[in-house]
Amino acid sequence: MQTLNRDGVNLAYREAGSGAPPLLLVHGFCGDHTHLSPQFDHFRRNHRVVAVDRRGHGHSDKPEQVYTIEDFADDLAWLCRELGLYKPVVVVHSMGAIGLELAARFPDLPAAVILLDVPFSPPPEMQAGFQQLLAGLRSAAYREVLRQTADNLIFLPTDNQQQKASLVAAMANVPQQVMVSTWENFLAHNTEAAAAKCRVPVLHLHSIFPANLARLRELCPQLVTGQTVGAGHFLQLEVPEQVNAMIDRFLKISLNGREK
């Protein structure tokens, strides 16, 4: 992993490959860059690819601070400028609010945004469950709360159980303060407002998290959608061949304007 220092905070990233458009890979809640390893390995063959550890996660520094969606987006924009990453396709797992906020705040930066199983404007029962999760993360039993949430919401019985155990163990090691602040600000973020300002091509690949795609399409008429088969929330790890193929196709038809 390489690092760049932003105002005293080391931000870690991994880079490989060459070719346009470049891809910026962004992990979800309590994740790290390894959560998009199959995409890193696939797209590095023809594209420059940068996979990040967001501040508070992985190999990046974990200062005690407020962790907001806006600040995550600012970090990504800063990294793009520092690395000379021109017009990247921003691929975000789960916390798609970060990608949409980036496109809203920095409209000239991304070439496109790709959302992997993002719970956009979920139904009231899921929103209530997300609030319950926040209360649990604030408790002394936060690690067990996270594990139970993973069992109940994130994985399918057919998912790779060894991979599941490894993912959950790593997620539970994220500092509690980072978990709580990130989730609290994720719930408070106005993702619909960010989506309404997004003007670049958007791809949403759905797996198991409820998402109001009709509403997302109202806000982003340029939306393209896809559906994976046989995977839980970590679709990019469970069925990378499906995910990578759909991203490849999206890049061809949305950014080139025609098939090659």
Description of the molecule:
It contains eleven helices and eight strands. The chain is of the alpha/beta class and 260 residues long. The mean pLDDT is 95. The longest helix has 16 residues, at 240-255. The chain has one domain: Alpha/Beta hydrolase fold, catalytic domain (Rossmann fold, 3-Layer(aba) Sandwich), CATH 3.40.50. It is globular, with a radius of gyration of 17 Å. β3 (23-26), α1 and β4 (49-53) form a beta-alpha-beta unit. 42% of the residues are buried. Helices cover 45% and strands 16% of the residues. The protein has an eight-stranded mixed beta sheet with strand order 1-2-4-3-5-6-7-8, sandwiched between helices.
